[in-house]
Amino acid sequence: MKAHAVWFCNFIPNRTLMEANWLVIGVVIACAAILVVFLVKRNLKDEEELEDFLNKNDHPIKKEETEINDNQ
After folding, report:
1. Which DSSP letter does residue 70 get?
2. What is the Cα–Cα distance from 4 to 23, expressed in whole angstroms?
3. pLDDT tens across 2-15, in order?
């Protein structure tokens, strides 16, 4: 066993290093999946809020100012 992996197994009693690695990998994958679901839901919510905001604030588009040399 590598020195940096030995201390990790001491925190998980009765587990081999390979079992401990799978446990950590499972926790990381679960956290990543939860993060992806959270970000997708938040994005959809923000998209709906933006559409509502743009629909309610229907201001006419002002004509852009022309420059002096536009007549040429």
Report:
1. G
2. 17
3. 555 555 555 656 66
